Backbone:
């Protein structure tokens, strides 16, 4: 299970930099390597300057990896548009961007009504405080650690203060980080208090995916343990 109320580490590889012509096999391999869930990046060429795939692809992928938790990272304008399609395709969580909608509350309501978990992300330039009115309504928040649009970008360490701020305020919140996260940056994420770890190219390009996932999990779990002891 991907969501844990902030108390365990979940690793959700992003398949953006995988071989998308071989998506089902790539996803199966990532799950066999010890992933907890999959982070599927949807881009519309409008909210971000890139295109990926939509709900028809998710619908085809769903039966190939049954039971696997799909987090849809919706880097799209007007995220309300695709809620029903994604729910129908078998998505488990719908993470939209605060910056992409006029009415985040209504978007969350629709996601729930469609039977999915609700996540909300913020881009690096966005202040963390914008999340506060919505925290109680969300299952997860996603702090972007790159400007969304492409895999393989450099991790922006400045974003860690947002994770710290959220973790200090909310002990039982699932907090995700996404962008440039891998063995070299995981310690910063863990120390700040992230527990949902999205990692794209670091895992996908690793020659030993299992080890890479194991190592990142160990770092996050030991930070979580230290924090729990301090409580
Ligand atoms: C960025 C995406 C990320 C990205 C992660 O726009 O939302 O999920 O693919 O890939 P890496 O870990 O390579 O930055
Ligand atoms: Zn993503």
Residues:
């Amino acid at each position: 299970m991907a969501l844990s109320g902030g108390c365990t580490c979940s690793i959700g590889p992003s398949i953006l930099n995988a071989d998308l012509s071989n998506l089902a096999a790539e996803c199966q391999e990532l799950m066999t390597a010890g992933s907890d869930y999959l982070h599927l990046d949807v881009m519309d060429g409008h909210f971000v300057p890139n295109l990926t795939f939509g709900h028809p692809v998710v619908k085809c992928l769903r039966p190939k990896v049954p039971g696997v938790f799909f987090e849809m990272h919706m880097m799209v304008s007007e995220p309300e548009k695709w809620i029903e399609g994604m729910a129908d395709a078998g998505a488990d969580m719908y993470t939209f961007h605060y910056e992409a909608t006029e009415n985040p509350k209504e978007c969350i309501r629709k996601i729930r009504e469609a039977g999915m978990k609700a996540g909300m992300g913020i881009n690096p330039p966005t202040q963390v405080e914008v999340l506060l009115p919505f925290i109680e309504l969300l299952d997860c928040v996603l702090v972007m650690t790159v400007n969304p649009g492409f895999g393989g970008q450099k991790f922006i360490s400045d974003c860690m203060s947002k994770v710290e701020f959220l973790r200090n305020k909310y002990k039982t919140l699932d907090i995700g980080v996404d962008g440039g996260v891998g063995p070299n940056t995981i310690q910063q994420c863990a120390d700040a208090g992230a527990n949902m770890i999205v990692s794209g190219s670091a895992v996908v390009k690793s020659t030993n995916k299992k080890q890479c996932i194991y190592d990142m999990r160990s770092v996050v779990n030991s930070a979580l343990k230290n924090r729990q002891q301090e409580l």
Q: What stands out?
A: The pocket of zinc ion (ligand 2) is lined by residues 14, 39, 41, 73, 178, 198 (CB under 6 Å). The chain has eight helices and eight strands. The beta strands are 10-13, 38-43, 70-75, 93-97, 117-122, 140-144, 174-178, 196-199.
